[in-house]
Every structure is written in structure tokens, then in C-alpha cells.
Specification:
34% of the residues lie in helices and 19% in strands. By secondary structure, the chain is α/β, with parallel strands linked by helices. Strands 5-4-1-13-14-15 form a 6-stranded parallel beta sheet, sandwiched between helices. Strands 7-6-8-9-12 form a 5-stranded parallel beta sheet, with helices on both faces. Strands 2-3 form a two-stranded antiparallel sheet. Bound molecules: magnesium ion.
């Protein structure tokens, strides 16, 4: 079902590759087919709790070999966005004329050197920020922060929320991993990052800058790593309002798989129209 002009895939993971701990289809066979067709792959997920290394392990557990550059989480993108904000502007001469907003050319790390951040989140976002050189403050020292970052934190408490609200109200740059209000589990939908972030939004009246889908940043970074133009990059996901909206906002062709959250009826009502709707990833790569 993949058109012949497509050279690379940006794949969502939850609801596309697996549901909880069960794979969706024969993943080793699916990826053998993808390799056979010569398609390049980057995995892009709004779930920022895990590090890329942890995702590589999870993929390997399902029999899929991948390298860390192939995983772009919302945590990675939030760190990248913040580093961009705090890095000095490039002198005009060193800026490539064709792509003034390119992500490339920024240091591979260290752009956050000396910048103090109060972050609410788990290892995925903490490691991404540390890797960029940012100094992470404990809740007791939150007052010294120069920026606030928020993702999901299963150790969240009132004091962390209080400090974040005070800092955001004080006008600090406010970034968040992803807007997903819920997270699917076998028992049903539980609060996601967006649900917690909404507390700060309610308390301050200020919205964060979101790194994850449907904002275009994550898919732009993924496409840059793939090195393919928009028209040749297929964005694949299971959720209309994040994956499909994000892919369309980024100007890429999009494919919805029906193995996760969104249904065929919802897909048919979606505008702009979705390029490909497939039962699952197996059918898509057929
Ligand atoms: Mg998904």
C-alpha cells in the first residue's frame, strides 16, 4: 500500500508496533519487508518517559534491530527546543541560505551549558536535558530556574506543581513534552502528561510550548535525521489528533493504522483527507 515514491517512514510506536506488552503482528517479518523495500525508518513517540536507549532495548525484545539515532521522543525534542532557545543566534554567514530554520549546525550537545532548569518528568526527559548540558534543579532550589519543562512524572506531588506554577507565572519559558491527556492501558485510559500540564495552565493562564505531535518539531527533527524531503516521507500513526494532524502540519503524506486508538469512522470524517488508511502495519507494508 506504500506508494513507490516513498523513501522513508516515521513510525509511531504505541498502537502501531505494540499495545502494552503485546506486539501488533509479526514485527521481525514487517521490518524485513521494510528493509527489503529499501525504506529508512525513524521511530517518533510522544511518550517521553523512556530514553532512546530504553526504546532500542524494547524494540530488540520484540525482535526489531534499531540504532539510537532512529528514536525521536518528545523528551529529546523538548531538550532540543530549549537548547535552541538558549543558544546564541548563528552569525548570518554560517547560516545555510536555503534553510534558515534548520536544526542542523547546532552543537550536538552543550547548548544548555550553565542554564538552570526546573523539570518535572521521568528519566527520559531528565537525561535528554542533561545530555544538552542543562543543570537540573531539585524542587528545593526551583527558584533559581531559568526555564520550566514538564512531562509526565509518576512521582508528581503538590510541591513540584506549586514551584512550576510560581515560575511560569513569573514569566519563565515554559516547555512541555506532549499534550496527550490520557495514556492507554489494559484497564483503560489513565492521566497522561497533558492532564498534569493542564493544572499549571489552569493555575497560570499560560500555555506551554509543546514539543510532541501534533506540533511539527518532532517530525521535522525525525525527517532531518532521515534526510528525505517531505513528499517522500510517510508519517504513520494510530491517533488522528496527534500523528495524523502532526504529519499533515509537517506537510508529509500520512498513513493511519487502525490497530490503536482511532477508528475507520473517525478517519473517514477527518479533514484534510488521510492519504492511506490500513488495518495495521502488516497490511501497510504489504
Ligand atoms: Mg500511538
Amino acid at each position: 500500500m506504500i506508494p513507490p515514491n516513498i523513501k522513508s517512514l516515521i513510525l509511531d510506536m504505541d498502537g502501531v508496533l505494540w499495545k502494552d506488552s503485546s506486539p501488533i503482528g509479526d514485527l521481525p517479518a514487517i521490518f524485513a519487508r521494510i528493509r527489503q523495500r529499501g525504506l529508512k525508518v525513524v521511530f517518533a513517540t510522544n511518550n517521553g518517559t523512556r530514553t532512546p536507549e530504553q526504546y532500542i532495548e524494547r524494540l530488540a525484545g520484540f525482535g526489531v534491530q534499531a540504532e539510537t539515532w532512529q528514536v525521536v521522543t518528545s523528551s529529546l525534542v523538548v531538550a532540543e527546543l530549549l537548547a535552541r532557545r538558549f543558544s546564541p543566534p548563528l552569525p548570518p554567514a554560517s547560516r545555510p541560505p536555503s534553510s534558515p530554520n534548520t536544526w542542523r549546525g547546532r552543537g550536538a550537545g552543550g547548548d544548555g551549558e550553565g542554564i538552570k532548569v526546573f523539570a518535572i518528568g521521568e528519566e527520559g526527559v531528565m537525561k535528554a536535558l542533561r545530555d544538552k548540558g542543562f543543570e537540573l534543579l531539585p524542587v528545593e532550589e526551583a527558584e533559581k530556574a531559568q526555564a520550566v519543562v514538564m512531562g509526565i512524572d509518576r512521582q508528581i506531588n503538590y510541591y513540584k506543581m506549586r514551584e512550576a506554577a510560581l515560575l511560569v507565572r513569573g514569566g519563565l519559558p515554559f516547555y512541555a513534552t506532549n499534550p496527550d491527556k490520557t495514556f492507554p492501558t489494559p484497564r483503560g485510559e489513565i492521566p497522561g502528561a497533558g492532564a498534569w500540564i493542564s493544572v499549571i495552565v489552569t493555575a497560570t493562564g499560560i500555555e506551554p510550548i509543546y514539543a510532541g505531535k501534533p506540533a511539527p518539531y518532532q517530525l521535522e527533527l525525525a525527517r532531518e535525521r532521515l534526510g528525505t524531503v517531505k513528499e517522500e516521507t510517510l508519517v504513520v500513526g494510530d491517533r488522528l489528533e496527534t500523528d495524523i494532524a502532526g504529519g499533515q502540519a509537517a506537510g508529509c503524506p500520512v498513513a493511519l493504522v487502525l490497530s490503536g486508538v482511532s477508528t475507520r469512522e473517525q478517519a473517514e470524517a477527518w479533514r484534510p483527507r488521510i492519504d492511506i488508511v490500513a488495518e495495521n502495519l502488516t497490511r501497510l507494508v504489504d
